[in-house]
Amino acid sequence: MMLSERIQTLIHKLEVEGGARWANYLALSVAVFSLAVWYDLHCYRNFNAPEAMDAAQVARNLAAGHGFSTEFIRPFSVYLIQKHNHALMPDKNASTNAVDYAQIQGWHPDLANAPLYPLVLAGLLTLHTPDWQVERHKSFWSEGGRFVRYKPEFYIALFNQLLLLVVVWLTFLVARKIFDAPAAWLAALLVLGSDVLWKFSVSGLPTLLLLVIFLGLFWCLASVETSDTENPDSRRRFILAVSAGLLTGLGMLTRYSFGWVILPVLLYFTLFGGARRTGLAVAAVLAFAVTVAPWIARNLAVSGTLFGTAGYAVVEGTMAFPGSRLMQALTPDMTSAYWVFPYMVKLWINLRAILQDDVLRLGGGWMGILFLAGLLLGLRNVVARRLRYFTMMCLGVFLVVTALGRTHWSAISPEMNTENPLVLLTPLVVIFGVAFFLTLLNQMNVPAVQVRYAVVGLVVMLACQQFIMTLLPPKTSPSAYPPYYPPEIQKFSGWMQPDELVMSDIPWAVAWYGDRQCTWTTSNSQYEFFAFHDNVKMVRALYLTLNTLDAKLFTECLQGGVDSWGNFVLKTAVANQIPPQFPLKAAPYGLLSGLFLTDRQRWETQ
Fold first, then answer.
1. Are both 448 and 504 inside the same structural domain?
2. pTM, whole model, 2 decimals?
3. Whose CA, among 102, 262, 354, 507, lies 20 to 30 Å from 597?
4. Residue 78's closest CA among 410, 483, 507, 484?
């Protein structure tokens, strides 16, 4: 074949046989990649959510072969494990110095995190082990010898951004399955332009992994419906029901509160399962139970509880245990945990705030408005109508779960946390919001197709305006200081031996950046501190950041009592009077971000 004929054949394949389609896909891929690079250069921020650091350090322990263990020690976790081991070994010496009831002398079992996300991160860290030390000399990671970005966090962010692209792809598949291609492309574009999802992509939280699982569950339900209407196949529907239960279980193993989605799944199969509704519902529930049972058995074996410390989220934030007081308590009085009234108060207060704020921001705001307005419109598509019912059932469950499960994490990191499952509804809200918008658009008397495109473009601009504004200058600083400054945390952590214990008001950061066992500051600086120091494990250093140093003088220092950490800081930092009986008295000079006390002058021996 002559060269000219080969060229003509190639042109024919490109123009007629699908080459143009692949060229469009290539251009789309380049555009999405460029968008991600721009976002990472201008909008990336180091971890700010304590839950992200907590999960990451558990993943590092897993990758190192230490199992599901943690260096972030909650006093309440110590309480649960001690109580469980005392019940198992009642005849042993009661002194925890003789018997390590708290399991803190070695690797302390993690009771806070669901296992799937740390396990996925552990696999990622095994494939590529990053440099754990901060970088101060190479560009991008530093600027002018000053720390800017932490490598392991950036790699985790890249992984989550890949999950974001999977979310966009699943949104397209789901929308095309229940509606049509134009709705699918528009929904995928709006999800790609969701500012909140991009922020979660660099937060280090498991939200995007959970969103992938949730969309997989939704796709299974959509497939059950289409198989029912187009080609009934009992075996295929049974497999999809089992898959739905399995995915719900995996979601629960990513975030415990997601397990309540099994209720909408069960109700969905009961209402719309057809002649075999009972079998499909039972299959889904059994698959869910089999998936979560091994991890629940592990928690029972370690702590005697179903979900460890996470199972007490409903107790946190009540009148009996405001803020983080429960997690910081070594000897909590749990009698009030059996009263109903505190939970009703918590439910009402949080639910009122959620209905006034979070619900109005569903899907990023504009699409949420279209979604809520679209509820007044009946859908002729039976599949879409039933799946919208499922979305509303999930919305109702998430409202209650969010109100009762909200803890101190929402106060520490109000925007980026795992305690607002409403964000999981973003793709579904966008899909049904787009369907309502296209219905309205089809009813408009549009004079030309160009006007139609202009209207669609205007809606896209309005829906994505928050993301567009984020991409514009000024550039976001990657630093999460205050209170987190990794170089300083790694500096004083290097003074400590690997088996020594630090106490801090940001123990998640010391565990993650410093790779040292660190307990949360106890509920007071006297009785509870010495109960921990004398009976559990000796505290070799104390690190208090601006979270404590900047405490309000009256409410947290004076009203907090003579034993409060605020009062301790007031005496130590202002009056320069360390309590005589306090075992940590040596302090280095020149720390930037907090107060550091230790048992001896370790920095002189380095």
1. no
2. 0.92
3. 102
4. 507
